Amino acid sequence: MQTRPIPARALAATIAWSACCLVLPCTSSGCAGYQEFLEDQTDTAPTAGTIEASGAPAGVWTFPVGHCASGMREGFYGVTLMSEDKQHAVRIVRNPIGPMTVAFRAPGSNEEYVAVPCRAVVGSMRGTGTRINGVAVLSGDVRFSCENLRGAARFTCS
After folding, report:
1. Per-residue pLDDT tens for 142-155?
2. pTM for the whole thing?
3. Are residues 17 and 79 in the same domain?
4. Based on the domain organization, do 39 and 56 belong to the same domain?
5. What is the enclosing helix (H) or strand (E) of 152?
């Protein structure tokens, strides 16, 4: 039987969950405070980069990438890159039969994402072998130049 080391992040989540349920009040729906812990795990994944929009249809804005989330939560292989306040969001979707797709959501809205035509989308995206709450952690980097939208980012998202 082969053994593999447990990634530190997964081990920390397991230990924190155990401590949560030993110290905090629990019901059949979970432990008090555990949801906040999970949100912190998702939101603190290392990211870096800047995304800039310079006209229609996105508008005019620039944001440093502050958060990211794995697209596995919403049924696609890719990531959502967000500003620190989560008002700006750009999705990078890995297409199994074509180039990666870039889509944005208007700042501060809950509208659907709008795909934009791109001249170049270069980068890589891969699973790290770690899962948090059943969601595969994705790591990679991307550079894109699209119609009135461009950017570059490094990410590790759960």
Report:
1. 999 999 999 999 99
2. 0.69
3. no
4. no
5. strand 149-157
